[in-house]
Design a protein that fits this description.
about 210 residues, 7 helices, about 30% helix, Rossmann fold, alpha/beta
């Protein structure tokens, strides 16, 4: 696990498969926010027992897997900075999410997270270029996986997800699950390329109109 002395994006899981690292041929990817997109929104989720997938999200990810598109989670986790959970607990949550997705034949190629916040405690108290709306997590993933960001898509339920995707040069979709129902009604939501009901609908569009 990375130490907390740097504000660089951290990661818990990387698919070792070399097929996603061919630097002679940059790949598009789909970046997903975690809470409210893949799993149900829980205020500062701190226990794997409280992790519940949004219906249809695993199948949507599996469809991207079948299409050979890397699926990478980029998630702000200021709960670590605020003392609601440790990085070890966050790791356990992510391992449980990986297992839950696997039971539905879905997989993630990477999970990047930002545990920092300007109002946090100790070494976690800082501004960070990895915290959305900054694009640091997407940039880190692009470097590791040889991803073409301009051909990629960021899917989230908050305006900050959209701003991070745009800052990285990706196209953006906001879903109405999680915080998305409220966020999609905000003026800044018009900055997204598309507003849809959920991840399943986002993947429908990605596979038929964007990454085709």
């Amino acid at each position: 696990m990375n130490d907390t002395t740097s504000d660089a994006a951290k990661r818990h899981f990387i698919d070792p498969a070399p097929r996603f690292r061919d630097r002679r041929n940059l790949l598009p990817a789909v970046f997903l926010d975690r809470d409210g997109v893949i799993n149900q929104e829980v205020h500062y989720l701190s226990k794997s027992a409280d992790l519940k997938l949004i219906p249809g999200s695993a199948n949507a990810i599996a469809r991207l897997n079948e299409a050979g598109i890397p699926v990478i989670v980029v998630t702000n986790q200021s709960g670590v900075a605020r003392g609601y959970l440790s990085e070890d607990q966050l790791y356990d949550i992510h391992q449980e999410m990986i297992a839950m997705l696997a039971r539905e034949n879905a997989s993630l190629q990477g999970i990047y997270y930002c545990p920092f916040h300007r109002d946090g405690d100790g070494n976690y108290r800082r501004e960070s270029t990895c915290r959305k709306p900054e694009p640091g997590m997407l940039l880190a993933a692009a470097a590791e996986f040889a991803i073409s960001l301009t051909d990629s898509v960021m899917v989230g339920d908050r305006i900050n997800d959209i701003l991070a995707g745009q800052a990285a040069g990706a196209r953006t979709i906001i879903v109405r699950t999680g915080h998305g129902a409220k966020e999609a009604a905000l003026p800044d939501a018009t900055k997204a390329d598309l507003v849809v009901d959920d991840l399943s609908a986002a993947v429908d569009h990605i596979l038929t109109a964007i990454l085709v």
